[in-house]
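Entry for the shared binder. Reason: the reviewer on the internal report wants the predicted structure included alongside the sequence.
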Amino acid sequence: MASYKLVQHTKVAYRLNDYRDDHTMPNTPTANVRRAIVSPTLVAAALLCGCASMTSPPGTSPSQAARAELAPSGTLRAAINFGNPILATRDGTTGEARGVSVDLARELAERLGIPIELVTYTAAGKVVEGIKSGAWDIGFFAIDPVRGADTDFTAAYIVIEGAYLVPQGSAITRNEDVDRDGVRVVVGRGSAYDLYLTREMKKATLLRAPTSQAVTDMMVAEKIEVAAGVKQQLEADTKRVPGLRLLDGRFMVINQAMAVPKGRPAGVAYAAAFVEEMKSSGFVAASLKRHGIEGAVVAPAAR
């Protein structure tokens, strides 16, 4: 059995180095045995952060600067958002965190050769708040210009869709019909949908539930005309709550990326290159398949 180090953070505790023994996925890169060739994509990702000379390709050992910036304390503190079930959930039996963002965080810690601490949240807005208190070193949430004030993003690793949910008898039949006078739309506070609709809606009234998981129940309880959120989650709600239907199509595309606090150029450059390799190697696709996620697709390579 591989040696391991136990890392605990409030409700989260697990062994880092035995993860590869028990949960190996197809095409998982192994940093200690594989030598990577620097592709134009990886170089471009580093150059975009203005620090190509400060980091190494993920297939090789990370530079001291990248390791220090991604884990200043010596432990990689990864923010995990349970508010988006496409990214992370709790195992029904063990209660442990699982999902594509958890897999990526663990793989990154493996590459850096350091222990990992999962800092868990119930909503994306709370993850973003955590950056102000220095609670985490990497996060996983949607790219948005408002969040960019405090955060540098990699390119997206997965793409998901935002959808609208309405009562079965609603006169609203198209996404274009939502932004009308007298229509109220409930979203999860601080979510990507909240930020996007705050900018884009001109006539409808935006209401906010405490978390994204609460939007459907709030819509039903308060007889709100529309709920907005992750398409997969709202689809599940139509099976849980009778008398609801999804509008066809989507009102936005959400690019989910890895985030690093501002002021860590070597760290974000390494993370950007890491994400590109995780996509091209099949790691992200295998993780989505293993966790049974159908509401997301692997994002295209960064340009």
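Summary line for the report: Residues 161-253 form a domain with the D-Maltodextrin-Binding Protein; domain 2 fold (CATH 3.40.190.10).
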